[in-house]
Design a protein that fits this description.
heterodimer; A: about 350 residues; mainly alpha; ABC transporter involved in vitamin B12 uptake, BtuC; two-stranded antiparallel ribbon; 15 helices; globular; B: about 350 residues; alpha/beta; Rossmann fold; 2 domains; 3-stranded parallel sheet; about 40% helix
């Protein structure tokens, strides 16, 4: 099948799945609200219809409850998948994901500190802000460690990322240990670290929209260069790409996206690793097609995962646990399937 | 430059961690009028001595004590009862309680010189009603320091199902007599625990005296409650949207104040996280939140919950978290306070 045909079909399929997921999310919940009424509410809130005849409770349930939740899920899934695709392109490594250089751990530590110190309770925006700050500080630190004489090597970036992941993970564990003394705070931190989309509000949507859009602008400004970078740094430099600058900007964009996603939804694993893989297998490695489609698949994946934990799984399962339970085995299956193609040391 | 940055980062993290979560405590809370005077009730529940001759103190030693242990299974949101037996050669004289609830009961019924040490949680005012008194003894240990306990050679350590498993194993390996109790979930199970502890310590007389105080005060509280056609439906909302159910002590508190725990009514057993849409659907008459962590402010600002009856009618009420966590005779004190909070016009 031609790549453009595959892209078209995949886009259509993902858009249908996405629309279906959003529809099911909006129409199902503790309250019964008819799909016609939901349509009226959405139109009324967009100024296309008068909301005089609609119960304010129903408006609140759909507009302030279910819609921000499903949009947060979609944007978080989109961000994580795009960040994963960019990381895999920069590092030319299929194992690369937003967590590989410690950004996820930095964001997680920022958020855990906001919860433990009580900032999140006083000022709800403190949690996402501290998560984003955590992600950016981690990125800066990784760069400071890995840069020597104005040059940053991929190998040292990865090594610094591994080291920082361990350090930040240890500090996070320490904070969790401290928080267990206060049972309720400990429980919230653990819940958050498992990925949670419960009770998301419009400000969560706003935060993740801003980070996603800002990062997307940066990524698509350099998407052609990213394609060239995948051929090798020397080759890219010969073709006139400012390798260091482009890589730094793309890493910054991926960090902003990851930080924004983790800030509003907690730690959600495997979306950034699995979605780009699946899409690459269908449409090839061209990032101009890969990145938006991987993002769309990530959004679809997380919308359905959240739907499952919210409506169909009776135990108190968190969305991040479900994505790992689904994504992990898929990734192992991919490794087994393609293990013969890997180079051996 | 990098070294400076590293020092700065490390310093920042240490500074943040060294700050306790004290920012989360609300300031503006006034103790409401209650059916029974709080100070008097606290004193009566906190220190009890029998006036007559203690009954079982003259009983036979060694004695074999049969007891039931309630074990919570959080994974399956259920609990089970285990029947156990414990043998004591003689009345224990050097006792270490390892849980707040047990410490509070022992502080009331046991001669205090027989209580060797108290753990840090029992001496923490966020969790314990008698924190100040325990701290004043100077005999407070970190709850996981098994070596310190082994060195003190107690003749009985009272642990609970939540006590660290390795800690309990080390005590057993060192030959320290350890009795592992369950987790009371109601005033009735606290009454059973008081009776059991009295029997274990050879202080049945004092235990019986405490039981009589509780029963008398419970009857007085019940008599002071307002007469209502339908009981108030109470929902206890904790941080993260966690709601206690049937086997939580909140159900017992609700029963004592003539109310219904909405979480139990809706089929929750231990604790479960719910979303705000579900909370709106359940529409409790009153939402109780712990005073800490600014939960009241957070819920008040939630766009979905402004349609909840409790919020519309100003029945989103705070109570210091300590009163919601208690698992001892002080449950009655909590119920007394809760009655004062939910029936403000009665007292």
């Amino acid at each position: 099948m031609k790549s453009s045909t595959a892209t078209g079909l995949l886009t259509l399929l993902l858009l249908i799945l996405f629309a279906g997921g959003v529809f099911v999310s909006l129409t199902n919940g503790s309250w019964v609200v008819s799909s016609r009424r939901i349509g009226e509410i959405l139109m009324a809130r967009c100024g296309l219809l008068s909301d005089m005849q609609i119960s304010p409770v129903e408006i609140a349930i759909i507009w302030d409850g279910r819609l921000p939740r499903v949009l947060t899920a979609a944007l978080v899934g989109f961000s994580l998948a795009v960040a994963g695709a960019v990381m895999q392109g920069i590092f030319k490594n299929p194992m690369a994901s937003p967590g590989v250089i410690g950004i996820s751990s930095g964001a997680a530590l920022g958020a855990v500190l906001a919860l433990y110190l009580g900032f999140a309770a006083i000022f709800p925006q403190a949690l996402p802000l501290m998560a984003i700050i955590g992600a950016l500080v981690t990125l800066m630190t990784v760069y400071m460690i890995a840069t020597s004489g104005g040059r940053t090597s991929i190998a040292t970036l990865l090594l610094a990322g591994i080291a920082l992941n361990l350090i930040l993970g240890a500090i996070t564990s320490f904070v969790i240990t401290l928080s267990t003394k206060e049972f309720d705070i400990g429980r919230v931190i653990v819940t958050w670290l498992m990925g949670d989309l419960n009770n998301r509000l419009w400000f969560h949507v706003e935060i993740v929209t801003v980070t996603t859009l800002a990062a997307l602008v940066l990524i698509f400004s350099f998407v052609r260069e990213l394609n060239i970078l995948m051929l090798g740094e020397e080759g890219a430099a010969n073709l006139g790409v400012e390798v260091g600058r482009v890589r730094n900007i793309l890493l910054l964009a991926a960090s902003i996206m990851t930080g924004g996603a983790i800030a509003v939804a907690g730690v959600i694993g495997f979306v950034g690793l699995v979605a780009p893989h699946m899409v690459r297998a269908l449409v090839g490695p061209d990032n101009r097609r890969l990145i938006p489609l991987a993002g769309l698949l990530g959004a679809v994946f997380l919308v359905y995962a959240d739907l499952c934990v919210r409506l169909y799984i009776p135990v108190d399962l968190k969305v991040g646990v479900l994505t790992s339970l689904l994504g992990g085995p898929f990734f192992i299956w991919q490794i087994i399937r393609y293990r013969n193609r890997f180079e051996y040391m | 430059m990098f070294v400076k940055f590293k020092i700065l980062l490390l310093g920042g993290i240490i500074l943040l961690l060294s700050a306790s979560p004290s920012l989360s405590v609300a300031e503006s809370w006034v103790m409401p009028a209650t059916p029974l005077p709080m100070d008097e009730l606290f004193k009566e529940l906190g220190y009890v001595r029998s006036t007559g001759k203690a009954r079982s103190d003259s009983g036979l030693w060694p004695r074999e004590i049969k007891y039931q242990r309630r074990v919570i299974d959080y994974h399956n949101d259920s609990f089970r009862i285990e029947n156990r037996t414990f043998r004591l050669e003689r009345p224990p004289q050097k006792i270490i309680p390892h849980a707040v609830g047990i410490t509070e009961i022992l502080w009331a019924i046991c001669p205090r010189e027989r209580l060797l040490m108290f753990n840090t949680v029992a001496a923490d005012s966020r969790f314990s009603m008698i924190a100040a008194e325990l701290t004043a003894t100077g005999r407070v240990f970190n709850s996981k320091e098994s070596e310190l306990i082994i060195a003190a050679r107690p003749d009985l350590v009272l642990t609970v199902i939540f006590s660290d498993a390795v800690f309990k194993q080390r005590l057993r390996q060192a030959g320290i007599p350890t009795l592992d109790l369950g987790s009371p979930d109601s005033l009735d199970s606290v009454l059973k625990e008081i009776r059991l502890l009295g029997e274990i310590l050879g202080e049945s007389g004092n235990a019986e005296a405490l039981l009589q105080v509780i029963k008398r005060k419970r009857a007085l509280l019940r008599a002071a409650l307002p007469q209502r056609k339908t009981p108030l439906r109470l929902l206890y909302y904790d941080l993260g949207g966690y709601i206690p159910g049937k086997s939580s002590n909140f159900t017992s508190l609700c029963k004592m104040v003539g109310a219904v725990n909405v979480g139990a009514e809706r089929g929750i057993n231990s604790w479960r996280q719910i979303d705000h849409e579900t909370l709106l659907k359940w529409d409790p008459d009153v939402i109780i939140v712990p005073m800490e962590n600014h939960l009241e402010e957070t819920l008040r600002k939630d766009p979905l919950l402004r349609y909840c009856r409790a919020l519309r009618e100003g029945k989103l009420l705070q109570i210091p978290g300590l009163y919601l966590r208690t698992n001892s005779q002080f449950l009655l004190l909590s119920a007394n306070l809760l009655a004062g909070i939910i029936y403000p016009d009665t007292y």
